[in-house]
Structure formats: structure tokens, C-alpha cells
Amino acid sequence: MTCEPGESVGAFLCQAGQMLRAAAIENPRLEARLLLAHAMGSTTEALLRDPRAPVPPEAIPRFRAALAQRLARLPMARILGRAGFWTLDLEVAAETLIPRADSETLIEAALEAGIAPRRILDLGTGTGCLLLAALSEFPTAWGLGLDLRPEAAALAARNAARNGLNGRATFAAGDWAGAVAGRFDLILANPPYIERGAIDSLMPEVAVHEPATALDGGPDGLDAYRVILADLPRLLAPRGLAVLELGEGQGPAVAALAEAEGLAVMGLKADLGGVGRALILKLSEKPVGGRDSSV
């Protein structure tokens, strides 16, 4: 296909689409529209309405710079500075993992459980996506989000304000839940779960541009689960639930670790791709190691 010459919307979209396709980037036409709409301060719908409209001169260098970033495999969300998650619009930055649709499975699992949490804890909060999505669905709840990086906690706080939830959410920097006291009705976590040796084989958008601390789960991918699961018995309310995101095939291993800590597995919910993504846990009614973990 030959693109028409000129500086119209259609010409730029055609040229960019061909370049993105040659770089083996999926959905090249859609991505071209997103980049051009971003550079013009417009919408993709507006671009399609009038493909012969000229691109404003001041938008052309912005578009070319954004296209160059995407060809270098910088994630689209980082170029746009935002990402959608659940019903939220979230700011993203280099310090945090970009929210993904797979993680929405945790919110679906919590809703399907039929609970009405008053206190929610989000471990490794990143952008705050899980906590804020939960708060949007449980209007009487309050939540605490923790992240190892102060920059991530600050970003999550901005996202709470961006979505009108700042009055019900608190964010802080902390090493998992080591400094947290009290019990929570719902605990959410999307910990790093990629095996360290497999990170370099991931797509460049992830391996190169996502923060390593949000990916590296240690030699077997389970390091973070060991820390989190050891704390859950003291953090979960008697009728509370914990919902943890898993990597593909990790269900049996994480379930075994959970049961060894006095937790009972309530289920494993699959994402839209059929991957067991959300492990649902509660306190076990059976004593573990001579103590009753349910109280």
C-alpha cells in the first residue's frame, strides 16, 4: 500500500501505521491513531471523521517524537502518560508497573465473593490501580496502599485525587506489610512473580521499560509470596479475604505456600485468557503449628 503524500491526518496515519507494522508492533493502525491524537490533543474518533484535515504544524514534531519512542518499544501508556484500569483513568510513570487488564480479575474475584469490606490493604500498590478500583466498588470502605518506592506511593496518591477517591485512600512507602498493624477485610496484592532468569526473554516493552523491582520474583518467582503469605494470618480479619495475582502456572505452588501459613484456598479465578490469575484465600479454621490461625 502506498501512502498519499502530504501532511494530512490520513497521510501521517498511513505512514506511521506502515512503520509500526514493520517493527512488528501489534495493532499498528490503532497505535498510529493513538499517537497522532495525543500529539494533536484530539481524539481518535475526531481523526477518523476527517482524514483529509491538515495536521497542525506544532503537532508534527510531537507526533514524530512519540512515534520514535513507540518504535523503540516504549510502552504506549508511558508515551501517553496514562492508562485505563477498571473504570479509572490513571497516571503512569517509570516507577510503576503499567496496569493491565489481567489484574482486573482480582477485582472481579472480590466482587463475586459477596463481601462488604470496610478496611482494604493493597500490597505493592504501584499506580494504586487495585486499591482504587476496589474503593470505587465498595463505597463504604477505606484503604491503605503500600509500595516500596516513595515515588510510587506519591503517584498512587495523585491517582486517588484524579479519580475522586483521595478522601478514602492513604498511601505510604513500606517494605510489604512489615510495619502494618491491625486487620483488614480485603487484602489485594500483585507482587513481582517473574522468574529472574526469564525477565530478559519478555517483550521489550516489559523487560526494558518496566521497573525491575515490579517484575523480579526471585529465582523461582515466589520470593514475594513467601513474605506476603507469612504476614496474612496477622493481617486478615476473621472473615476477611486475600486476593493475590499469580503468574501462569503458579497456582499450585502459591496455594501450597498459603496452606503452610495457615490459610485456606477458596478458589482460583481465571482471566479472560484462561490463565489462573487470582488466588482467593481466607484464614484456615484448622490450627497450624499448635496455634489457631483463625483468630
Structural features:
elongated, two-stranded antiparallel ribbon, 11 strands, seven-stranded mixed sheet, alpha/beta, 2 domains, Rossmann fold
Order of helices and strands: HHHHHEEHEHEHEEHHEHEEEE
Structurally, the number of domains stands at: 2
CATH superfamily of the largest domain: Vaccinia Virus protein VP39
Which descriptor suits the 3D outline?
elongated
Per CATH, the class of the largest domain reads Alpha Beta
User: What is the averaged pLDDT score?
Assistant: 92
Q: What is the CATH topology assignment of the largest domain?
A: Rossmann fold
Tell me the span between the first and last alpha carbons. 68 Å
Task: Provide the helix percentage.
Answer: 25-40%
Rg (CA only): 22 Å
Strand content: 15-25%
- CATH architecture of the largest domain, please? 3-Layer(aba) Sandwich
Weakly predicted, low-confidence segments: 288-295
The total of beta strands comes to 11
Main sheet, how many strands, which sense, barrel? Answer: 7 strands, mixed
Strand order of the largest sheet: 5-4-3-6-7-9-8
Per DSSP, the total helix count is: 11
Tell me the structural class: alpha/beta
Question: Could you please describe the fold and organization of this structure?
Answer:
- The protein is built from 11 helices and 11 strands.
- The protein is α/β, with parallel strands linked by helices.
- It has 2 domains: 64 residues; 213 residues, Vaccinia Virus protein VP39 (Rossmann fold).
